[in-house]
Amino acid sequence: MEDLKFGNMNRYAISAALGTDRKRKKEVRDFLFSLFMDMQLRKIVGLAGPNIQDYIDYCKSKGFTEFEIYEKDGLVAMHQLIHLKDKVQLNLKDILHADANQPNTFFDFDFCGTVRYLKEHIAKFHGPFIMTFCNRVPLKETIGTFFGVRGETILETNVKTSPIKHTEYITNVGKYIYAYYRDTVPMCCIAKIA
Asked: Does the pLDDT at position 9 exceed 60?
């Protein structure tokens, strides 16, 4: 039945479309979004996933009013269009086509892959952003790849336990927050906050 309803969407997209409990993801995202609230950002360029209206509603609850959404999978885009109630700019192409230099813009990318396969994406965007990855590679590789393709050197690392467990990385270019969570699959977020 799922195959008929969702076609060839990957398992992550199907679980998101079915509304699998995402409590841990929400806790991590609430924490990370709170770090950007004082920046007066109103526009989001992002990847909304199959539950686009839930995504838009969540972002609106955080004060965002303008949305530029990308989706390269045609089946996911059709699912999005069926459930979309708000006016958004929906682009059927890879997020790499987005303008990374838009002022007063927050970039929010929930990727369905590991850092190994998203190097070009990681290198392109300079923040403020949250990038979410599948966490199927060791932490050392994730962090090494992420900062390596950005050409940044880690100067300081601080592990913190409140309000959620996270690691703060200070580099020669900026300040980042890394947070791990597991709902349906192991995931991690890296946010550029300064």
From this structure: no
